[in-house]
Give the backbone structure.
Amino acid sequence: MLEWEGMKQSIILFLAFWIIASSASANLGANSESIEDAYGTIVQRRLRDDGKVDVVYAKGRYVYMVTFVNSRSISESYSRVNGTDLSEKEITKFLKANSGAKWVPANTGTERHFKSSDGTAEATYGILNGRPALTVRELKR
């Protein structure tokens, strides 16, 4: 009986973790509501002349800048609040969140470039607004 109680607790913990993790995921193509839920407090919102909307969010250790068209994310940038470099693990995590495809390095110049193997997105790791950031962009199909 004690073994069953332990198994029930493990299942409940797993389900709770899975629900939290899935509710916190947002990526290219996501709507503005799911992005806001995942990325936290809006720090700044700016309507561009071309109708796109740039929104900056802050949550935990990260600052997220998302560009929306018709309330759908087409570009996302990730950086640390303290302005330090993202680790390889963080870069990999953000890339995976934005495409189920494999990301292939395509380095040129001083910035690091990546392309998704399915051709739907590209990413750049370099300086954005004075801080190191990974920017992932949807490619037009």
